[in-house]
Design goal:
The complex is a heterodimer of chains A (113) and B (114). Chain A has 113 residues and is mostly beta strands. Chain A has strands spanning 3-5, 10-14, 19-21, 24-26, 33-38, 44-50, 56-58, 64-68, 73-78, 87-95, 100-103, 107-112. In chain A, β8 and β9 form a beta hairpin. Chain A is globular. Chain B is mainly β and 114 residues long. In chain B, 0% of the residues lie in helices and 50% in strands. Chain B is built from no helices and eleven strands. Chain B has strands spanning 4-7, 10-13, 19-25, 31-37, 43-49, 56-57, 68-72, 75-80, 89-96, 104-105, 109-113. In chain B, the strands form two sheets. In chain B, strands 2, 4, 5, 6, 9, 10 and 11 form a seven-stranded mixed sheet that branches. A four-stranded antiparallel sheet of chain B has the order 1-3-8-7, with no helix packed on it. Chain B is globular, with a radius of gyration of 13 Å. The chains are: A mainly beta (113), B mainly beta (114).
Chain lengths: 113, 114
């Protein structure tokens, strides 16, 4: 069965520091991968997605992610974190050809001034 | 992308009662789904809302507890029946279009059961 693992439950970084959130997936075929962000009291917002092609994808708010098939990973990165990036980040994969997302457990990001 | 309105945004309910959550989309969509996010947890798919027919439920979710309607391509409701404190969660509606492979989420309905 498809699954998504986010090994880091909670990460704290200083404002201006770089960020990398890890995501590993288990999926038999070529996966459709996503990163969503959930700010406190808000719904989910799509940051970026990977379907095919260039393995480095750019998203909104200065985020990027790199698909590495050999490592079954889709890690999210940002070169310089802003205080407004404090939120919960979810990695997800589409399951079975339908638009049903399987979510990872999420990583909560705290940003220190 | 589609704009989703969910009502209510939050509610506090008594044990044993039922609450219906509405999801309205500003355009016709192929796919509509309902997710649950329990406190401090990730999102779990409850069911796929099928237009004009019974919803398709995921393992662990049943129609008697979470009846779903979808009368047209822009609207769906989820009812949480006979609520208990364990039902306290955020319930999110999400929509997508066949072939697009991208889901848009509503802001969610935060339900607290006392």
């Amino acid at each position: 069965a498809q699954s998504v693992t986010q090994p880091d439950i909670h990460i704290t970084v200083s404002e201006g520091a770089s960020l990398e959130l890890r995501c590993n997936y288990s999926y038999g075929a070529t996966p459709y991968l996503f990163w969503y962000v959930q700010s406190p009291g808000q719904g989910l917002q799509l940051l970026l997605k990977y379907f095919s092609g260039d393995t480095l994808v750019q998203g909104i708010k200065g985020f990027e992610a790199e698909f590495k098939r050999s490592q079954s990973s889709f890690n999210l990165r940002k070169p310089s974190v802003h205080w407004s990036d404090a939120a919960e980040y979810f990695c997800a994969v589409i399951s079975g050809g339908y638009n049903k997302l399987i979510f990872g457990a999420g990583t909560r990001l705290a940003v220190h001034p | 992308s589609a704009v989703i309105s969910q009502k209510p945004s939050r509610d506090i309910c008594q044990r044993g009662t039922s609450l219906t959550i509405q999801c309205q989309v500003d355009s016709q969509v192929t796919m509509m789904f309902w997710y649950r996010q329990q406190p401090g947890q990730s999102l779990t798919l409850i069911a796929t809302a099928n237009q004009g027919s019974e919803a398709t439920y995921e393992s662990g979710f049943v129609i008697d507890k979470f009846p779903i309607s979808r009368p047209n391509l822009t609207f769906s409701t989820l009812t949480v029946s006979n609520m208990s404190p364990e039902d306290s969660s955020i319930y999110l509606c999400s929509v997508g279009t066949a072939g697009a492979n991208v889901l848009t989420f509503g802001a969610g309905s935060r339900l607290t059961v006392l």
